[in-house]
Amino acid sequence: MRMYYFYFLAFLFLSSPSWVNASPVQLASIFNDSHQVEHYLVSEKYDGVRAIWDGTQLITRRGNSIHAPPWFTEKLPNTYLDGELWVDYGQFEFVSGLARQLNGNDEDWLKVKYMIFDMPKVSGVFAERYKKYVHLVSVLKQPHIQAVQQQSFASRAQLDDYFDKVVARGGEGIMLHLATATHLAGRSPQLLKYKPYSDAEAVVIGYSEGKGKYQGKTGALIVRNLDDGIEFKVGSGLTDALRAKPPHIGTVITYRYQDKTKYNKPRFARFLRVREIF
Length: 278
Hints:
Elements lengths: L1 H14 L1 H4 L5 E5 L9 E5 L4 E5 L4 E2 L10 H4 L7 E6 L5 H9 L5 H4 L3 E6 L7 H15 L4 E3 L8 H13 L5 E5 L7 E9 L3 E12 L8 E8 L5 E4 L5 H5 L7 E6 L1 E2 L5 E2 L2 E5 L4
């Protein structure tokens, strides 16, 4: 009975929106037609692992250590940096798995780039911080440490043209950062993401039985949205391996969808990945 109570408390902890959204880093809001694009600096959104250099080590946005080899970080300064560990398009699972390892091999880490996109604790608005992190990377002269390039656009048509090119080459979307913004931790209206689909997070609360070729396996995950508590099923996007061994109850997943029904349920929800908690 005590063990059941422990697991119940753990489930409540993992599924609590106040916990899963807690973060010292800046998180993006959604871009929409009301935003004036000429006020923003725009960059590609890299689908990698968020990595913060705290001046001494690489950590996740949850504050857990990323055990990169010494040569990967030895040239980084005693300055707080925000960025993404990225390998290539379609390689999220590879870099995510590598970032979790205690002793990843050099051959794998040689494929990884640290894409720096902010220096949060340096004074100044984002346009000024951008110039500073570009200068820093140019001084470091390390091929695996790169500065995320920012661009500006005078119209929505120009922005959409850039967006289409990024998506066409396999990119996840683009980020818009208000040029005059100071750094703001947590969910920020000054940092926006523009993607070809919407995504959200939900906690797994159950499973539905598979049918046909999925008999005896998981047909769909029963999940609850973290933001509004809406419950629904996600089956599309699950691999055979995940259907055989689905994410545990209490696991937070990321899913994509096109729009919402009149009952506020996601339409065409598709599993993307288990949300990083390390």
